[in-house]
Amino acid sequence: MDDAVIVIGAIGKPIGNAWVILLQKMYCGWAKIHDCESSILYSCIDENNDRNIVVMQIFGPDVHEQLINETGIHAYTTIYKSLRTTVFANVDILPNKISSYEVSDNLASPSRRYVETPYTMVKDYITNVETEDISSVLDGNIDIFIGVPVKG
């Protein structure tokens, strides 16, 4: 077993809250697609809080190796209150056994960008893979970005 701990953190409200929840659902969807179990270890998502964080675990063989390239900045662009808004989330994929961890606010260049409006696109800057099917990606179909063979 090579389980993974996933730490998702975003700054900003209310879009940051929503983005953390969407990423959490995306990784839970990926786990379900791959017949893995997932659980939420810690969650602090609050409309009154500028910092939002979810810590989750996915149990299964080679999960850490399969998801390691998900580590990075995930940028989400949408329309909020008639304005185009982009929010950033930091995603860290950690091995199951960790002694300590510090949440970082390092918002360097995005490793993946998700655009919901005015057009739909998900572009991974590490693999250079791009798709217009943002709904499928947010449902957990991220294998095209991480190099895991798609189950058929």
- Spatial sequence of strands, sheet with the most strands: 2-3-1-5-4-6-7-8
Proportion of residues in β-strands: 35-45%
Quaternary structure of the protein: single chain
Order of helices and strands: EHEEHEEEEEHH
The separation of the N and C termini measures 23 Å
The major β-sheet equals: 8 strands, mixed
Low-confidence parts: none
How many domains? The number is 1
Instruction: Tell me the Rg in angstroms.
Output: 15 Å
Please tally the β strands and state the result.
8
Helix content: 10-25%
Shape: globular
User: How many helices?
Assistant: 4
CATH topology: Alpha-Beta Plaits
Mean pLDDT: 88
Q: In the CATH classification, which architecture applies?
A: 2-Layer Sandwich
Task: Offer a few descriptive terms.
single chain; Alpha-Beta Plaits; eight-stranded mixed sheet; about 150 residues; about 20% helix; alpha+beta
Describe the secondary-structure layout.
Blueprint: E1 4-11, H1 15-33, E2 37-44, E3 51-59, H2 63-67, E4 72-80, E5 83-95, E6 112-115, E7 121-124, E8 130-131, H3 134-138, H4 143-146
Description:
The chain has 152 residues and is α+β, with helices and mostly antiparallel strands. The protein is built from four helices and eight strands. The chain has helices at residues 15-33, 63-67, 134-138, 143-146; strands spanning 4-11, 37-44, 51-59, 72-80, 83-95, 112-115, 121-124, 130-131. Strands 2-3-1-5-4-6-7-8 form an eight-stranded mixed beta sheet. It is globular and about 45 Å long.
